[in-house]
Protein 1
Amino acid sequence: MSRVCPAEAPSLDHVVGLADQLAERTLTAIENSELTTEEVWNSPKVALILEVAQLVRDSDTEFPPAMRRLAVIGQLLVHRIDRASPSDSESRTDQPRTGSAGAPEMAA
């Protein structure tokens, strides 16, 4: 694994911009029914977006629009899953929580 020299490291803005583009593509796939709920839930791309969301949250930067919309859709998916299996909803601890910017709040 090669290391990137700090002078060559991408800026947070660049990384967030790329994650927002990935979120936009993910939203398009969801809207076109190209991804199932399970595929979204288990997607490594969504996991990467969530990692960048943690960086955004830690830096007190505003969440970009596609990442905010994806967070809302994630909450709707959790709500739909919880409604489909009410007995499991009390035991779920992995439900996204929203922060002040409307993006998922990450556990510390």
Note: The radius of gyration is 15 Å.
Protein 2
Amino acid sequence: MLGTRIDKTTQLSYCYGVLLKAHSLSSPLPDSDKDDGLQDQLLDANEREWTKKIAAAEPEQERFRVLIQQLVVDFHEDTLKDHNAISEIELVGPRH
């Protein structure tokens, strides 16, 4: 998947979500000096392998950041937001 074309907003959102999840899991937790297997629970084997590959490819990570940022800018500048545009931007928003 590294370097491949992103064709759909859902694909971009999914990949960026996996990156964010992996990043938050790799950040050290306060008073925690061991891996409790949380990454194994939250990411499947393919996602873990992909995040390992992309971790070594900073330009690829930046590409995802730029694509997400451009999607948000385009949405903000679009004065005629239809249902599809709103649905797409919801995909990249914060999840609760």
Note: The mean pLDDT is 77.
Protein 3
Amino acid sequence: MFPASHTAIAFHPTLPLLIAAYASFEFSVFDLSTKTFSKEYPSQKIPYPTTKDKTNKVIGITFHPQKTLTILFYGLTYISPVVMNEV
């Protein structure tokens, strides 16, 4: 189902979407209502902190509590926000 090995997945809190992060520091959005990968939010690179420690993979996904269109990807030493309407 996923195009690559995923390191974290999360359901969006208010929309019928599943977010998947991959070992390649990319993510994709799966639309649960159409059962296809979203064309509105195509696969994108996750902004990675300047310390390029590629062993520090994305281990979790959460959402900003007041701004649910902001996805927060996190690893052991970083948090990378992505605003969905800017994807």
Note: The chain has a mean pLDDT of 85.
Protein 4
Amino acid sequence: MFGTRKSRQSACLVAIVNWTTPAHSKIMIDKIPQITAFLKKHYTPGTIEKHSLKETSSGLLSILFDVFPMDCIDTDDLYNILSAQGYEPQKAKVDEFYWCLLEND
């Protein structure tokens, strides 16, 4: 009638975990659309030779986290956001890649 003993135990365990897990760790607000709009509004793709901002992924994330909540995106999200807007990582040296952005007027 109420399922197996094992399924009832699993349901209880899930309820306990949900009850004891802090709310902020369960709720992740998707900031990707806002970050995409922000970058699109303020920057266009640049090159190693012509850029207003030249940063590694971690450097660019640090800048974005001054505006948006810390850790709201990761390097994979950043790559996807920038690639969708036509950015390509620029190779400066053998093992150094940068995102080059031109500030919009």
Note: The CA atoms of residues 28 and 72 lie 8 Å apart.
